[in-house]
Fold each of these.
Amino acid sequence: MKNIIFIAPPAAGKGTVSDFLVSNYNYEHISTGDLLREEIKSGSSLGKEIDNIISKGGLVSDEFMIKLMEEKLAKLDKNKAFILDGFPRTIKQAEKLDEMLITNKVTNNIVIYLDISLDDALGRVMGRVICPKCKRSYNLTNEKLKPIKDNICDNCGVELEKRSDDTEETFKVRFDSYLENTRPILDYYKDKGILKWVDATMNIDNMFQIIVNEAKND
Ligand SMILES: [Zn+2]
């Protein structure tokens, strides 16, 4: 399978697709969020600097992210394909990533963009509910993920609670700023001819199939 650089706005389903590929196609999921958390937990000097930046509400610089990714890519199991999630976020990171992949002789890569409109994404996020007792998640906007009885947990019979911290307004801001920041990166990969555009609102099994077909070696 090809390595996948995954780009998707909030609520497009990147987590679900990643889990599917990890379980069924032995992918390694490299998430920058996880890498940052691991680095902080390790207590390394880099980790301490990152912790300091994040706790002040700052953004981790390109240099830090690139360094983290360099370390991770150098340690990769070459027999496994990987999913890159959360990197690159800037053009500089994208250019550096190209260099790193060449250095590590990783040549078999595609970029997948999961396309979803703000309205569809908003519907998904606002429909997310959780059972306060057994912690089972539901989505009121998805036929497959709905509880049997309106807003009641199938297991416990208790009332479900909203799961998202987002209000409609904060989600819109988050979504729009993601698209704005990501556009140059999409153009970058489009120019290179490795960008695959996938409709994230289709039936989930069809979407899995399309992504698997794109990721299969020619
Ligand atoms: Zn429950």
Note: The helical segments are 14-25, 32-42, 45-55, 62-74, 91-103, 118-127, 168-192, 204-215.
Amino acid sequence: MLKATETENMGHVRRTPLFPLVAKGLKYASGERALIDGLSLEIGETTRTVILGPNGAGKSLLLRLLHGLLEPDAGSITWGGEAMSGEVQARQALVFQRPTLLRRSALANLTFVLSHLPAAERTTRAHELLAAAHLEHIAATPARLLSGGEQQRLSLARALAREPDVLFLDEPSASIDPAATALIEKMIANAADDGTKIVLVTHDLGQARRLADEVVFLHQGRVTEVTPAPEFFSRPRTDPARSFVAGRLVL
Ligand SMILES: Nc1ncnc2c1ncn2[C@@H]1O[C@H](COP(=O)(O)OP(=O)(O)OP(=O)(O)O)[C@@H](O)[C@H]1O
Ligand SMILES: [Mg+2]
């Protein structure tokens, strides 16, 4: 299926480019504590970017800052040279570490974000998305009664329903069994193949190896390296990254 942007491009409605995504000198503090501490980063359009780092490194905060849900205390974020705007944010979706779903059925969580489509098409598309997430059997179940893993798959399906140009994912398979993890990874890989930029936070080194083109390593609120994935896993450049890849506690 063509993404909305491509359809519009064929109609010669040009959208502004979103890349490179550039963060410069980002700071975000809570009281005296610097949580994001002078972070700089540049991300291109075509790579699948995986953000790795120990608990508390600032990965979730960084996604929220990049997506414009939090304002940095200092520094700047630009998308294709422009500051974040409502239009740029609407072209992105973020799947949170803890799913946030509507208190409605699984199906209704999808039809809700498909409100731009005519009613019949909306329902058909919602069922297609449920099927792709292997959730057809629980279409009518209230989302809050779904298991943790089912909720994560529904959150991803809902994000994909919006056909984002940029998909941020925060630990999308944290409470998911191996078969469902494979399914989630396939959904993510398919979205990437369709031209969606993937920015994924994970703790799962296997998942990072399977999905990453490049790795951004975060430690204590800063980026310590941005490295092509094969090189990151064979020769991480910094001590914290070496410890992380070796499975040692990173302090
Ligand atoms: N709103 C907030 N106010 C104060 N401290 C916060 C806030 N949000 C996060 N923190 C702290 O900032 C640090 C970074 O948090 P963040 O959630 O980004 O970590 P993370 O890298 O995603 O960790 P994890 O791997 O455990 O998900 C943590 O020490 C956390 O306790
Ligand atoms: Mg986190």
Note: Residues 30, 35, 53, 55-61, 97 surround adenosine-5'-triphosphate (ligand 1) (CB under 6 Å).
Amino acid sequence: MRCDKCNANIKENEGRELHGQNLCEDCYMDRLSPAKACDPWAVFSAKSFSKGDGTSVAMTEIQSKILQILKETGGAAPGIIAEKLQITPSDLEREIATLRHMEKVRGELRQGEKIIHLW
Ligand SMILES: [Zn+2]
């Protein structure tokens, strides 16, 4: 099964359904509570118990550039990142989705604007 939003692989028992879409947990939470403030530490500790296999995932050049930008800016709107990298917003969205699933970046709403920042 694949997430209808970010196209990530979802395990059988981890998929969520919302308005007829199959969503991964991340996207489901986004849909459900887009304005809710993140609690990165709660998520971090929850996940570090269930994972911890230490596998490292290779990043593409564009993905490491995104991380570099986020490191320098402390978080930026997707539009700004896309402009810096000179890629289209939909290309950026795909990269961000991948990075989210690698637990490298998170999305957050600041004053009603979506901001991407490091995990
Ligand atoms: Zn998803």
Note: The longest helix spans residues 61-73.
Amino acid sequence: MAPHDADGSSRSWQRDHPWAIVYDRISTDPRLGALLWRIGVGSGVGVLHRIAAAELAELPAGAQVLDIPCGGGIALRDLPRDHRLRYLAADISPAMLTRTRGEARALGLDGVETVEMDVGDLPLPDDSVDLVLAFTSLHCFPDPRAAVGEFGRVLLPGGRLALSTMVTDGPLRFRGLWVGGRVAGVLGPGCSRVELKRWLAEDGFTDVEVRPAGGLTYVTATRS
Ligand SMILES: C[S@@+](CC[C@H](N)C(=O)[O-])C[C@H]1O[C@@H](n2cnc3c(N)ncnc32)[C@H](O)[C@@H]1O
């Protein structure tokens, strides 16, 4: 597991580091958590939900979604109860997958499969996924380049990618959060917006839309 984990950030998440528990609470609690998220990230979690809902709404019945890293299942809130999608929620952390299953139950959602996966080495065929959701993601991975490569590999031509990440050339006021995350061992090396756009172009993505929102950058793109 975590073959690309040279600096250990994925292993920390895999072992359910205390920050993973705190993060899950903050990202799912609608009041105090939402406030803390806004203070810490400088934008609301509503941006994530708006993008996820819009992308999911475009998909035909039977489409394959890969939500990685699903964390505690935050994006499940944007999935209609009567959805007809094949929804694969994946994460390296068994504890996060347990939380996702709990969230699916609480929302009354069927058809959500949870699988332990390393984003750097997805056990999925090429050209097999219609939509990859990867929110609050790349900055947590030891090898963000490998993750983007895997998204491009598994997406079908015309498939969509929606992700968010902290970037190394983001606003200075979020630098402390980044340094703290590195010291705690839960953040990887990250990437700049320029690098991310270059990787997406190298991997055949078009229609790349970049939306900065405080300390996070949201990106949507189409696999050509
Ligand atoms: C900040 S959380 C984001 C979760 C969720 N997408 C959200 O927006 O709330 C980062 C997630 O990345 C997962 N993760 C870290 N390294 C991973 C890897 N190599 N493969 C898959 N998931 C990984 C962690 O377990 C954690 O659930």
Note: The first strand starts at residue 64 and ends at 67.
